[in-house]
Every structure is written in structure tokens, then in C-alpha cells.
């Protein structure tokens, strides 16, 4: 849905882009187990559950307000302009980064550090001094919890 929102923005379908951004928020909360209540309450529960920081909660509410405006507002009074829609999608991207990508980056970094520590503990430092530079391929595997399901 997030990709589709950006595609809508690229063709100046601003209301559609913002409506999808709002839907992405809803899906994000549901993916994290917050399935009941209004979107406003779901956003607050993401914050209370420490899944998002305060400024990201505020960003999520701005996305919600924008989505509500295009869904319930007077569409002919003042259409959603591209700059506003782009800003709202930027906030959506920050929310997705906070909930999915940032935790995944931290887990990967921690796993790499622990792997290195284990190699050093097992004598990897001695082997690397005598065998020359060692190259380790790191497979990056996204767990289901790291990737938005939409």
C-alpha cells in the first residue's frame, strides 16, 4: 500500500495517495496487534506500547488528519496540493521506518556484532592474523515482523 501511495503521488493523484497513507497507518497498527478502536486510539496505543516515539506519534496523527480530510472533507472546496500530499507521505515513510526498518537494522547490527565476538572468542583473531584478510558474507534476512505486510 505504501508503494501504491507513492505511485499515486507520482501521477498527482494526491487524495488517493493520502487516503492510502492513512490505510497504511491502520494496517501498521493491526500488524502490531492493535486491532480495535479508532485509528486515533490505535496510534496512541502504538506510542504507549513504545513502538513509536512521541514525534512519530504526532506524525501519525498528521497522516490521520490528512486521510480524514480527503475522506470526509469537501473535495471541491480546496483540493489536496502535491506539496501537502508529499509531506504526508514523507511522514508515513518515517512511521514505517520507525516501526519496521529501524528495529530490523538494530537486530542485524547486533547479530553481526555477536557473530564477530563469537569468532574472536573461538580464536578467530589468531586465524585472521595468519590467514590474511577474511571476508564474511552477511545474509540479510527480513523476518516477517520487519517487513510491512502491505
Structural description of this entry:
It is a single chain. With 150 residues, this protein is mainly alpha-helical. Helix content is 69%, strand content 0%. The protein has six helices and no strands. The protein has helices at residues 2-10, 14-31, 39-48, 54-72, 82-121, 124-131. Mean pLDDT is 87; it is low at 129-142.
Describe the structure concisely for a colleague.
By secondary structure, the protein is mainly α. The chain has helices spanning 2-10, 14-31, 39-48, 54-72, 82-121, 124-131.
Give the terminus-to-terminus CA distance: 5 Å
State mean pLDDT (0 to 100 scale). 87
Please state the overall shape, judged from the principal axes of the Cα atoms. elongated
Structural class: mainly alpha
Rg, please?
A: 21 Å
Give me the count of strands: 0
The ordered string of helix (H) and strand (E) elements is HHHHHH
Percent range for β-strand residues:
under 5%
**Low-pLDDT residue spans:** 129-142
What can be said about the biggest beta sheet?
none
The number of helices is: 6
Helix content: 55-70%
Amino acid at each position: 500500500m505504501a508503494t501504491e501511495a507513492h505511485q499515486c503521488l507520482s501521477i498527482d493523484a494526491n487524495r488517493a495517495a493520502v487516503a492510502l497513507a492513512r490505510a497504511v497507518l491502520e494496517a501498521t497498527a493491526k500488524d502490531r496487534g492493535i486491532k480495535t478502536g479508532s485509528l486515533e486510539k490505535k496510534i496512541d496505543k502504538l506510542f504507549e506500547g513504545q513502538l513509536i516515539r512521541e514525534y512519530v506519534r504526532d506524525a501519525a496523527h498528521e497522516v490521520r488528519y490528512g486521510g480524514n480530510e480527503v475522506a470526509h472533507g469537501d473535495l471541491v472546496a480546496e483540493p489536496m496540493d502535491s506539496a501537502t500530499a508529499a509531506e504526508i507521505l514523507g511522514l508515513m515513510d518515517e512511521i514505517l521506518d520507525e516501526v519496521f526498518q529501524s528495529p530490523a537494522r538494530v537486530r542485524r547490527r547486533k547479530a553481526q556484532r555477536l557473530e564477530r565476538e563469537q569468532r574472536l572468542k573461538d580464536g578467530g583473531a589468531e586465524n585472521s592474523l595468519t590467514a590474511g584478510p577474511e571476508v564474511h558474507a552477511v545474509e540479510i534476512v527480513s523476518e516477517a515482523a520487519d517487513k510491512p505486510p502491505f
